[in-house]
Design goal:
about 90 residues; alpha/beta; 4-stranded mixed sheet; 4 strands; about 20% strand; globular
Length: about 90
């Protein structure tokens, strides 16, 4: 697995993804831990772009609050809430 997708956390960035399978992929979870990454994923990967934006904007305050913490962390983004997941 390429870990290039986790380069941005080194710069203080946050990773957003639409693939919830990270919950079942130990190598990707290990990368989140190793890189102290701060990650959010949409729980429905088949959403059209505008709906993805609505979900993220609906949760913006919670996402910003979660980002006040250092990584590593992984949050599931639902339509109206975020939920911290165990890595």
């Amino acid at each position: 697995m390429s870990r290039g997708w986790l380069t941005p956390p080194v710069l203080g960035w946050v990773a957003f993804m639409k693939d919830e399978r990270i919950r079942r992929r130990p190598a990707e979870q290990r990368a989140v831990l190793d890189f102290q990454a701060r990650c959010f994923y949409l729980t429905r990967q088949n959403l059209p772009g505008p709906e993805m934006a609505r979900w993220l904007l609906a949760n913006l305050d919670a996402i910003v609050a979660a980002c006040a913490d250092d990584g590593p962390f992984l949050y599931a983004v639902h339509a109206n809430q975020i939920k911290k997941m165990t890595i």
